[in-house]
Structure formats: structure tokens, C-alpha cells
Amino acid sequence: ARHILLRLTPQLTEAAAVEKLAGFKKRILAGQADFAALAHENSQDASAKEGGDLGWVPSGAFVPEFEKVMNTLAPKQISDPLVSRFGVHLVEVLERREAPVSARDQREMVRGMLREKKQNEAYARWAEDIRGRAYVEFREQPQ
Question: For the whole model, what pTM was predicted?
Fold first, then answer.
């Protein structure tokens, strides 16, 4: 996979970044531009110098928004601009390969999921406890 990342700044709003990347996609699909060249010139990510190439990546390596879109793309397909906490991305999947997951990796994935589930449950209990002990007093403004 490869991508072009535009980070949001006071000068570059989310809407402007989405519009700019949509323009890049149109140019690429029309054969007027090359994804790697645009990534090299415009991407604000460390992968820019490699034309946005992210290499072979295992499932779960990216933020969920990015991963979800990347997993729906067919090889040689380019996504619409997508927003993540890092900015706005344009993603292209170059090719896919099936990699067998070892028993050890499966155990680690399950452990991670269980750990996350337990953390979420503990947080929910803590938040409920805090809410139960909170004291809120409404005072009317003097007139």
C-alpha cells in the first residue's frame, strides 16, 4: 500500500485537504499524474521519499479508519480521501498477499484483544463509580 498524507493546519482545513486529494485522485485516474510522484511532492509523511510506499504491512498496523478503507480496496484501486487523527489520506493498494499467522501471533492477538476488553470494562466501572459519587448543585443566578 501507499498513501499521500496531508496534515491539517490553520492554513489547511479538513475540507481543503479533502478537495486537494480528490483532485489528485482525478488526475491519477485520468493518467495526468503518477501517485508516487504526487506522494513524493506533497505527502507530509516519512514515506513521502519512497513515493508514499508503506511496504508490506500486517493487519492492525494502522489506525482503524485507515485500515478499514485499505481493507476494502482492490489491488490498484485508489480510495476517496479519508480523515484520521493524523490528517487526510489518499490510499492506494498495490497488491495483496496472504500471510499465514503463526500460533504464537494468534495468541498475542487474542491476548491483546482480551487486555483491551478488560481495560474498557474497568474504565466503564470506574466512570460509573465516579458518576455515582459526583455531587452537582444547580444554583440560579441572582437577579
Answer: 0.67
